[in-house]
Amino acid sequence: MTNFTKQLFGGSWTEKKLEILKKYLDAYNKALKKQPFKRVYIDAFAGTGYRQQRKRQYKIRGFFDELEQDESRQFLKGSAKLSLEASPSFHRYIFIESDKNKINELEKLRKEHPEKAKQIEIVRSDANESIQNYCNNEDWANTRAVLFLDPFATEVEWVTIEAIAKTRCIDVWILFPVMAVNRLLAKDPQKISYDCLNRILGTRDWFENFYKTRTLDDIFGKPVEIVHKACDFKRIGEFYKERLKTIFSGAAKKPKILYNSRGCPLFHFFFAAGNPKGAPIAIRIAEHLIRDI
Fold it and tell me: How many domains does the chain have?
């Protein structure tokens, strides 16, 4: 275990998202156990399969202000490892990762589970490209899947979300970086990251939802339009949820809000269901986990 490449994640928000995911995977497999479908788990940012946690706090510049870490280098199970322990099991596991060193660690993880080695597919690729390709080429008449989108920041593109929804066969958990998006929505309109926000949200409608324009007279009495930011974390999350509802069979009413130690929202953990027939049950399970964990 000590040979693992460091992958430092921590804080209670990490524990919560993984606990929700693990319990959903177990419930999902139990619900579909007697169905004829091939069940697939897809981890789009699989990392090493493990994560390292330290208790000592330190600060990183950027929106990940505080990640709790531990001097003892305690290795904890990450999402890929937890998925392999889901009971009942999936028929296939797809772990996507772009980093070569992390790919090597995922290969070690596969060796830890020789009974499932042939079921594990490790893909070194850009997550957006790989997911879109998979969604467009899988036999969805005979397949159902759960996809975990856990990006480090704002990597997930809306075209990828659309490709997932189009299958109508994938349930997806999305870790949406609400703090990062809020920072992209700069107070100064000239500093707004328009291209990035369009890519993440898949529409230009966000501007009229997040900004307001008012007309004031300048010192010469000439009317001047003033654009100002008029949104908070909640409004950003609501906008993204409504976007999900336009393309999926359904979405959980509320995301799990994951806070840093200062009480600021880092992420909104969204759930959306793909299959129209199974969506009501899937959403009910997801909402229960979001509420109680």
Answer: 1
